[in-house]
Amino acid sequence: MTVKNEQFPQGFLWGGATAANQIEGGFYEGNKGLNIADVLPGGKERLKVLKEPGFNFEIDKTKYNYPNHEAIDFYHRYKEDIKLFAEMGFKVFRMSIAWSRIFPKGTELEPNEEGLAFYDRVFDELHKYGIEPVVTISHYEMPLNLVKEYSGWKSREVIPLFERYASAVLNRYKGKVKYWMTFNEINSALHFPIMSMGFSVQEGENKYQKIFQAFHHQFVASSLAVKACREIIPEAKIGCMLLHAPVYSYDSNPENILYALQEEQIFNYFCGDVQVRGEYPGYAKRFFEENLVDILMEDGDLDLIKDYTVDYIGLSYYMSQTQKKEKEGLDTAAGNLLEGVKNPFLKASDWGWEIDPTGLRIGLNRLYGRYQIPLFVVENGLGAYDKIEDDGLINDDYRIDYLRSHIEAMAEAIKDGVDLMGYTSWGCIDLVSASTGEFSKRYGFIYVDKHDDGSGTLNRERKKSFYWYKDVIKSNGEVL
């Protein structure tokens, strides 16, 4: 099927997206310290295990396997992988820097040179092919020492440590990186704070007090990173990154519409309102009062947040969510750390994530209408089981169909007037799933021979979608 589309602007940033902890491996090499991802067990029970009170952030190989330790070995195979990205025609490659490669414990006064040098080599290899890196400063890989010593972002003491880290990488790579983001999917912590905030809410604790206090610390840290970027690389662009999942009301009952609005405000917009508009939104005051949240702030915090807002919004989009105030008796739909009620108009992926390309157009319109700054879809993709046929081909037409429909939705949003910078498909090469720790949940254009039981050669193979995406990029989205 070929679809003609002439809506994407010249210079649109086509590419793919990954995260250090899901592709690199080499978890003890180059003087890297342990981070949160290194203690996350593999398997479908990952989130259940992490939600249990008392998770001790230790490695226990008698009970679990740890796929992030080797991942797909990008640490040693980055040249091979980047060459494949270049073959597809990537303009940009979204990646993250592992904080614990640069400051192994997070408390050192000087950065680890071996870690810095590794990313120098990666950036140089990307530039060799004319690919611009898009770098997330913190993507679910906080140094484990900061989790154990400070309870992660619960503690204000982590702010200057993050500032030191951000300043170190901004200074080191000021000639190599033009596009930055501070915290990956910062709002995801509302439902699941372990990976992004470094703690779990214990029984008897006020969940919202802990999480929103940690949000405040991250907002201050993010603004300090924006300030450092403006001073160190004034020509660069630095954004926030949000998990965006438009919320639909289950029906036209005003009670359900109001409930959906309130869910949307707190989950989809709160973090953006602070980081883009530079102030706490009005609706948050009532939410805080009703949930007994009292945020401790220091003098100057609100001025800093106001003065150093982001240049663009990076967002992930995988699914919408449908909400009803009273859910009893209704089928639920869960995915991407979210849970709502089943939408009868949508199909779902192999992992139960509802597929809704129109939701991407809706979300882009809502975000741009609210903020009026450029948007960048930095994650979107389909996790699915892939099969190697007898002839060696991997015919992932289901992935092509998914991506085509979402790219069409972006084109429609651009027609609607949305300022969209680019698109980096998530997991452009197969990697470890963040939510389940599985290899079998594959997203990539490139198949990696690695399996949930740890077996595999790590060989790379091009899927059918590889050649399809190459044509999409070559035609600037005209041929889908």
From TrEMBL:
Signal peptide: none annotated. One of its GO terms (cellular component) is cytosol. The active site is at E379 (nucleophile). The keyword Plastid does not apply. One of its GO terms (biological process) is carbohydrate catabolic process. GO terms for molecular function: beta-glucosidase activity. Keywords: Glycosidase, Hydrolase. InterPro entries: GH, GH_1_N_CS, Glyco_hydro_1, Glyco_hydro_1_AS. Pfam families: Glyco_hydro_1. NCBIfam families: PRK09593.1 (NF007158), PRK09852.1 (NF007356). PANTHER family: 6-PHOSPHO-BETA-GLUCOSIDASE ASCB-RELATED, GLYCOSYL HYDROLASE. Belongs to the glycosyl hydrolase 1 family. This is 6-phospho-beta-glucosidase. It comes from Gracilibacillus ureilyticus.
